[in-house]
C-alpha cells in the first residue's frame, strides 16, 4: 500500500490537540507549540510553530485497513483489520479496555463509522459474503455481545458508512450500485434505497442536511430530505481517494485525488427555490507540500487529509512519503460585484455597515454634526458637517439658487457683481493688483461654505483663524489668509506651526520662509514651465494651493479650482471671491454635473434641495448602495412636498423593509417618528373659492382660462352664471339678483386682455352666506338687514344668523 510507513491519520474529535496515525503501527500524538516543551527523538515537526510528541504506540494490530476515532470524551479508536476483526484501543497500558469484534465469516473490514450523537454505537462495514451481513452495529458499552445489536445487508458489500447528525439514521454505500438508508430506531430496520454508483466516501454535512459521496472522478451532493437524485455532480480530473466534509462549515467539502499534490476545496452553496434547491459550487486548490523531493525531484503528492474538529482554518495533511504537516488553510476572501461592475470585498459589505450604524442611531441625532461621528466614515462625516452649516430654517439652500445660476444654456444671467481691484500689501514689494468680485449673494455663499466671517477681517483674524489653529489646521488657516492677501498673518501662522514638534514642522518652516520673500510681480512672470513639477513636490495640499494661487494669473485660477485634495467648500468659497460671474456660473454647473456623475454628496453644497440634489442622491445610491444615508438625507433636508415622488418613496420604504428584515423594530419605529417630526405640513391656502351648486367648480373668474376671461371682459359686471356650466348663480336673499363672481377691473384704464394685475371689488360687493341655513346675499345688503333684524331675511326661515357670528358694526351713513 502506498503512503510509506503511515497509511492514514485523523484528529481525535473531542480531544482537539491529539491525532492518531495508522499503518504497521497505530500511534497517538499530541500537538504542542514549539516553546511548550523539549522535543524527543520521536517528535514530528508539523509546522514552523507546532510539533507532535508521541504519547502512545500500538504494534499488536497487523494489516490495518481502516480506523475511526470515537466521539467519546476519552481517546478511543476503532481499528478495522484485513481479517475482518474490529478492535477498540484506548492507548492506556494500565487500564486497557481492549475489545475485539469478530464477524461470523472472515472477510476484510472496509469501513467504520461512529455515531456522533450516541458515541457508544459503532457501525462496521465488511466485504461481501453471500451468507453473512455486510453491516454490523455494535454497542460498545455492552462489551463484546454474543449477538450484535443489528445486522444489515445480507450478501452485500459495504463500501462506506456514515451516520445522520440528528436521527439514528445510517447511510451506507453498498455493492457499487446503491446508497441505502437504515433507520436503526426500528426493530425491523427499514431501508430506503437509491440506485447510483456514487457509493464511496459517504459523509454528512455538519448541519445534517446534505450528503456527499464519490465514484472515480465524480463527486455527488445529495439532500437527505429528498435523496431521489443528487443535487449536483462535480467533475474532477483524476480519481478521488478521499472525500471529507468540513466538521465546522456546511459549505466546504475537501477531496484528494490519486497522485495529485493538490487538495480540492469544494464550496457548495444552496439557494432555495419554489420547487426545490438550486446548487452551485466553486473550487479552490491547495498545495500544502510545495517543496520537491530531493531524490525524485518531484513534488510530494497527498495521501490523506483530516480537518481539525473545531478550527476550520486548520488541517493535517499526509504526503505519499509519510510526511505530516499542520497546515493553516488560507482564508477565502469573499468578493462581490458592486453596482459599477467592479469587485468589492465582503469586509466592506454595505449591509453590515448599515446594520451597525442603525444600532448606533445614525442619522437620528438632533445635532446634525453628531451623525457624522456615528457614521465612522471620513467622507460622510465631512458631508454631515457641511450640511449642518448649510441648513437654514429647515431648508437646504444650495449655491446654485443663491447665486442665481440657471441650468438652461439660454437662461437668465447671474445678478451682476461689483468688481474691485485690490493692491497687494506694501511689504511684498509689489505693485500688482488682484481682482475680486463682491455681492450679497457671493458673501452668503461663502458663509454656507464655512467662511463665516463675511469679509470682516477683524472677525476673521480674531475668531475664525484662531479656531482653525486650535484644531491644528495651520496650513488651511494660512491658505485662507493668503486668499485675503494677509500674507504677513499667513507667515505668522506657519511660523507658529513650525515651533510645534510634529512631522510637518520642517515643511511649515520652509513655507514661511518662501512666503517672506514673495513678490507678486516676479512670481507671476517667471517660472511658468516649472510650476507643475515644483508644486507636485509639496505634499500638503493647502500649502500647494497657496503657492499655486500666488503664482497664478489674475484671470486664471484653474490650478486652485482643480485641487481635488482641497474640500469643495473651500474651492467654491475661493471661486465666489475671485471668479467673474460667467466663470463662476460655468464652474457651478460643471461641478454639479461632475458630482452627479461620481455620486459625490459634497455636491449638495451646490444643488441644495433642488432636482439636481435628488439626482445626486440617486447617483450616490447607485455608486455605494448606501440606502440608509440616502433615506436619512432625504427626510432630513428635503421638503416634504417631494417625498411623494416615486424615488423618495422607494428609498424610504426600502430602508424600512431592511430594518424590518433585521428585526430592528425599535430602530424602524424611531426612523418613522423622526420622519414624521421632520415633515412640514402643507401650507393652507389663504384664499376661499365659491363653488357652483351644479358642477362643483370654482366660479371665480380669475381661475378661468384666457378665452373665458376675454369673453367676460366685454361685460365683466354682468356675469350672473357659472363660467363652467352656465347655470345661474344663487340669488341675493334681499335684492333677488343673481350673484356674480368677484369681477376684476383693469388698472389705469387698460383693457382686461392686456392688463398685468387685478383689483378686487370692494368688500361690500362680496357674496356672504350663513353656515347654518346656507342663505346669503351681497355683504352690504346683509349688513344693512342685520343692523335692524336678528333673523334670516328668507321667508319662513327662523335662523338667527346674526347671533351666530361676531357682532357686525353698524353701517356708516354717507
UniProtKB/TrEMBL annotation:
Q: Name one GO biological process term.
A: positive regulation of TORC1 signaling
Q: Which InterPro entries match?
A: MIOS/Sea4, MIOS_a-sol, WD40/YVTN_repeat-like_dom_sf, WD40_repeat_dom_sf, WD40_rpt, Zn_ribbon_mio
Q: Which keywords does the record carry?
A: Repeat, WD repeat
Cellular component terms, GO, for this chain's entry? cytoplasm
Query: Which domain of life does the UniProt lineage start with?
Result: Eukaryota
Name all GATOR2 complex protein MIO zinc-ribbon like domain ranges.
Answer: 692-801
Domain MIOS-like alpha-solenoid: from-to ranges: 354-578
Q: Which Gene3D superfamilies match?
A: YVTN repeat-like/Quinoprotein amine dehydrogenase
Family, as annotated: Belongs to the WD repeat mio family.
**Identification of the protein by name:** WD repeat protein mio zinc-ribbon like domain-containing protein
**What species was this sequence derived from?**
Hermetia illucens (Black soldier fly)
Amino acid at each position: 500500500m502506498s503512503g510509506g510507513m503511515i497509511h492514514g491519520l485523523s484528529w481525535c474529535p473531542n480531544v482537539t490537540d491529539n491525532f492518531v496515525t495508522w499503518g504497521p503501527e497505530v500511534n497517538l500524538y499530541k500537538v504542542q507549540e514549539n516553546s511548550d516543551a523539549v522535543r524527543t527523538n520521536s517528535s514530528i515537526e508539523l509546522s514552523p510553530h507546532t510539533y507532535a510528541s508521541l504519547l502512545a504506540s500500538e504494534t499488536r494490530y497487523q494489516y490495518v485497513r481502516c480506523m475511526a476515532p470515537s466521539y467519546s470524551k476519552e481517546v478511543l479508536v476503532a481499528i478495522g483489520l484485513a481479517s475482518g476483526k474490529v478492535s477498540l484501543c484506548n492507548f492506556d497500558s494500565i487500564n486497557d479496555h481492549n475489545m475485539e469484534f469478530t464477524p461470523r465469516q472472515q472477510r476484510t473490514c472496509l469501513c467504520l463509522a461512529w455515531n456522533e450523537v450516541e458515541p457508544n454505537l459503532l457501525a462496521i462495514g465488511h466485504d461481501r459474503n453471500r451468507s453473512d451481513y455486510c453491516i454490523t452495529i455494535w454497542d460498545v458499552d455492552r462489551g463484546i455481545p454474543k449477538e450484535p445489536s443489528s445486522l444489515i445487508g445480507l450478501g452485500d458489500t459495504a463500501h462506506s458508512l456514515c451516520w445522520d447528525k440528528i436521527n439514528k439514521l445510517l447511510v451506507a454505500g453498498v455493492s457499487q450500485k446503491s446508497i441505502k438508508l437504515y433507520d436503526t430506531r426500528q426493530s425491523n430496520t427499514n431501508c430506503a434505497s437509491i440506485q447510483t454508483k456514487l457509493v464511496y466516501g459517504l459523509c454528512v454535512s455538519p448541519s445534517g442536511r446534505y450528503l456527499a459521496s464519490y465514484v472515480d472522478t465524480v463527486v455527488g451532493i445529495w439532500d437527505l430530505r429528498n435523496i431521489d437524485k443528487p443535487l449536483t455532480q462535480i467533475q474532477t480530473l483524476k480519481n478521488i481517494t478521499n472525500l471529507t466534509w468540513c466538521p465546522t462549515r456546511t459549505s466546504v467539502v475537501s477531496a484528494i485525488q490519486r497522485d495529485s499534490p493538490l487538495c480540492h476545496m469544494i464550496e457548495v452553496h444552496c439557494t432555495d427555490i419554489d420547487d426545490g434547491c438550486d446548487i452551485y459550487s466553486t473550487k479552490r486548490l491547495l498545495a500544502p507540500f510545495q517543496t520537491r523531493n530531493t531524490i525524485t525531484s518531484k513534488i510530494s503528492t497527498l495521501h490523506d487529509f483530516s480537518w481539525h474538529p473545531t478550527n476550520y482554518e486548520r488541517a493535517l495533511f499526509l504526503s505519499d512519503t509519510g510526511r505530516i504537516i499542520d497546515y493553516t488553510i488560507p482564508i477565502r476572501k469573499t468578493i462581490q460585484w458592486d453596482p459599477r461592475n467592479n469587485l468589492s470585498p465582503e469586509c466592506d459589505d454595505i449591509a453590515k455597515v448599515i446594520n451597525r450604524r442603525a444600532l448606533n442611531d445614525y442619522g437620528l441625532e438632533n445635532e446634525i454634526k453628531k451623525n457624522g461621528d456615528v457614521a465612522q466614515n471620513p467622507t460622510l462625516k465631512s458631508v454631515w458637517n457641511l450640511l449642518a452649516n448649510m441648513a437654514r430654517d429647515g431648508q437646504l439652500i444650495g449655491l446654485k439658487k443663491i447665486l442665481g445660476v440657471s441650468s438652461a444654456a439660454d437662461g437668465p444671467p447671474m445678478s451682476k457683481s461689483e468688481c474691485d481691484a485690490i493692491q497687494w500689501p506694501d511689504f511684498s514689494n509689489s505693485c500688482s493688483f488682484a481682482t475680486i468680485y463682491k455681492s450679497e449673494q457671493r458673501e452668503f455663499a461663502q458663509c454656507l461654505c464655512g467662511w463665516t466671517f463675511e469679509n470682516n477681517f477683524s472677525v476673521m483674524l480674531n475668531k475664525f483663524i484662531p479656531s482653525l489653529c486650535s484644531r491644528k489646521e495651520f496650513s488651511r488657516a494660512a491658505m485662507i489668509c493668503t486668499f485675503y492677501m494677509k500674507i504677513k498673518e499667513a507667515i505668522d501662522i506657519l511660523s507658529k506651526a513650525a515651533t510645534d514638534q510634529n512631522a510637518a514642522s520642517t515643511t511649515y518652516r520652509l513655507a514661511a520662509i518662501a512666503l517672506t520673500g514673495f513678490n507678486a510681480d516676479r512670481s507671476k512672470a517667471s517660472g511658468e514651465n516649472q510650476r507643475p513639477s515644483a508644486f507636485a513636490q509639496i505634499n500638503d495640499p493647502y500649502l500647494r494651493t497657496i503657492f499655486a494661487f500666488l503664482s497664478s494669473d489674475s484671470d486664471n485660477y484653474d490650478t486652485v479650482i482643480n485641487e481635488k485634495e482641497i474640500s469643495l467648500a473651500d474651492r467654491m468659497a475661493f471661486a465666489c471671491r475671485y471668479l467673474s460671474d460667467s466663470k463662476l456660473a460655468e464652474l457651478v454647473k460643471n461641478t454639479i454635473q461632475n458630482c452627479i456623475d461620481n455620486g459625490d454628496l459634497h455636491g449638495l453644497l451646490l444643488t441644495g434641495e433642488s432636482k439636481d440634489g435628488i439626482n445626486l442622491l440617486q447617483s450616490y445610491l447607485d455608486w455605494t448602495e448606501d440606502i440608509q444615508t440616502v433615506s436619512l438625507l432625504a427626510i432630513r433636508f428635503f421638503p416634504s412636498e417631494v417625498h411623494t415622488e416615486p424615488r423618495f418613496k422607494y428609498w424610504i420604504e426600502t430602508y424600512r423593509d431592511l430594518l424590518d428584515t433585521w428585526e430592528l423594530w425599535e430602530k424602524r419605529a424611531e426612523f418613522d417618528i423622526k420622519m414624521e417630526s421632520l415633515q412640514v405640513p402643507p401650507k393652507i391656502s389663504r384664499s376661499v373659492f365659491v363653488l357652483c351648486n351644479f358642477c362643483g367648480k370654482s366660479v371665480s373668474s380669475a381661475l378661468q382660462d384666457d378665452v373665458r376671461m376675454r369673453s367676460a371682459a366685454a361685460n365683466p359686471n354682468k356675469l350672473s352664471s357659472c363660467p363652467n356650466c352656465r347655470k345661474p348663480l344663487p340669488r341675493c336673499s334681499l335684492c333677488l339678483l343673481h350673484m356674480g363672481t368677484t369681477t376684476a377691473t383693469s388698472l389705469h384704464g387698460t383693457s382686461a386682455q392686456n392688463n398685468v394685475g387685478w383689483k378686487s371689488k370692494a368688500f361690500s360687493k362680496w357674496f356672504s352666506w350663513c353656515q347654518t341655513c346656507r342663505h346669503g346675499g351681497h355683504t352690504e345688503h346683509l349688513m344693512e338687514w342685520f343692523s335692524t333684524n336678528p333673523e334670516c331675511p328668507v321667508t319662513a326661515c327662523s335662523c338667527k344668523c346674526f347671533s351666530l357670528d361676531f357682532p357686525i358694526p353698524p353701517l356708516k351713513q354717507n
